[in-house]
Amino acid sequence: MKEFEVNFDGLVGPTHNYAGLSYGNVASLSNAKASSSPKQAAKQGLMKMKALSDMGMLQGVLAPQERPDVMTLRRLGFTGSDAQVLEKAAKQAPMVFQACCSASSMWTANAATVSPSADTADGKVHFTPANLTNKFHRSLEPEVTGRILKATFSNERHFHHHQHLPDNEHFGDEGAANHTRLCSNYGHAGVELFVYGRYAFDTSKPAPKKYPARQTLEACQAIARLHGLSEEGVVYIQQNPDVIDQGVFHNDVISVGNQNVLFYHEQAFYNTQASLDEIRRKYGEGDLHFVMVPTAEVSVADAVKTYLFNTQIITLPGGEMAIIAPTECQESPAVSAYLDKLVILGSPIKQVHYFDVKQSMRNGGGPACLRLRVALNDQEVDAVNPNTLMNDNLFKRLNQWVDKHYREELKVDELRDPQLLQESRDALDELTQILKLGSVYPFQR
After folding, report:
1. Is residue 220 among the annotated active site residues?
2. Which of 87, 123, 130, 354 is spaced 20 to 30 Å from 308 by Cα?
3. Among 157, 155, 149, which residue's Cα sits nearest to residue 440?
């Protein structure tokens, strides 16, 4: 039996915009109100997906959410035709309206937490959509995310889908952005690392003072229970509160893992040595590489600015590991110098590939934000909706779809345009036919 890690990237939605909605995300706030290019953003994402596919990786596509979210605006008391709802909301509650237009579902690292069948008690791949309660604009996503995941991984023999955790800050869950997995082989039982920012029920514990800690320990523990993970297969690690206050809003901005490599910044964790000792003990026999980046070589500020750790580490078909990095890493003297040195240090990471994902980076998400990792064996791959897996034909078809439906430029003030809503619905209706997802959106039901 063969095993793979499949990256499912989020397609950027037609309303991709810079509204600066994410407090605690430095890039999001610093680019607020700038004009965006939905077409360029979608094509940059598709280019990255196709490039990984061409490297021999299995690559999937996850559909975006419907935006503007007219259904939520109606729940909040705005009435009339769709056009009237948009106009009233934009005038009477502009910040609420902008939140309901967010295209943040493109960052599918926040879509869900996924545990592979090798780790779970019932031998199935488990999915729990993230509730994303810390940000209103993201808390609108879980229900539709769940439908998209079920349409992509529909075979009940292999896949088990859970409802997202209760919509409450005590169980704030940000998905795979705070979860990684170490293993000798994708198909072998591994150690799942859950990184949390705070304790929900014990306020005496350390917590950040400036920016919110979005993930709670209690949410991590609940997901581990739902997924049927053994105690010996899980490590809970607290994120360093000080780095959260420096703009490290998710763990994947300061740490990333792949197979037997944990790549992390010196300041990433609160109690680093104890956590590493527990990981090593539970990992058991075999090579395990802890690659620590010293503050003296790359500051936290540079790591956040370039998203050095929001890179993807992939295992190529030949067995070598490669880092998929944004061009911002290449443009930073400190970070590029570190990466040049990393590939000759003796770790399994031997290559660095740079990609232009500036439209995503300006809104606060790097290459790793754009993908949800799903470890699958060959039987499980065969059970995935084949229309969602990248190939030459799908790449061509999705580019044509973007050319047909997406705007070259979008200003925040244009989000109220009822024509944009219709363009978005037309695009998503056609997309569900391309990917054969069925009726996953509210306007289709």
Report:
1. no
2. 130
3. 149
What are the respective helix, strand and coil percentages of the chain, to the nearest 5?
Answer: 40, 20, 40
- The answer to whether residues 117 and 124 touch, using CB atoms and an 8 Å cutoff, is yes
Query: What's the confidence (pLDDT) of residue 345?
Result: 86
Crossing angle of the two packed helices 82-92 and 418-435, in degrees rounded to 10:
120
Residue positions counted in the chain: 445
Q: Out of 16, 160, 250, 265, which one is annotated catalytic?
A: 250
**What is the tens place of the pLDDT at every residue in 371-382?**
999 999 999 999
CATH number for the region 3-67+102-444 comes to 3.75.10.20
- Measure Cα distances from 312 to 221, 301, 336 in Å: 25, 19, 16
Burial 105-144 (b: 16+ CB within 10 A, else e): bbbbbbbbbbbbbbbbeeebbbbbbbbbbbbebbbbbbeb
Q: Which of 161, 329, 369, 380 is catalytic?
A: 369
pTM flag (> 0.85): yes
Is pLDDT larger for residue 368 or for residue 33?
368
pLDDT score of 205 more than 50: yes
Q: Which of 5, 141, 174, 192 is catalytic?
A: 174
Torsion region of 346: left, alpha or beta (phi above 0 gives left; psi -120 to 50 gives alpha): left
Q: How does pLDDT run across 226-281, given as a tens digit for each residue?
A: 999 999 999 999 999 999 999 999 999 999 999 999 999 999 999 999 999 999 99
Query: Are the beta carbons of 355 and 328 closer than 8 angstroms?
Result: no
Determine whether 350 is exposed, middle or buried from the number of CB atoms within 10 Å of its CB (0-12, 13-18, 19+).
middle
408 included as an active-site residue = no
Angle at 159 between CA 187 and CA 148, to 5 degrees: 120
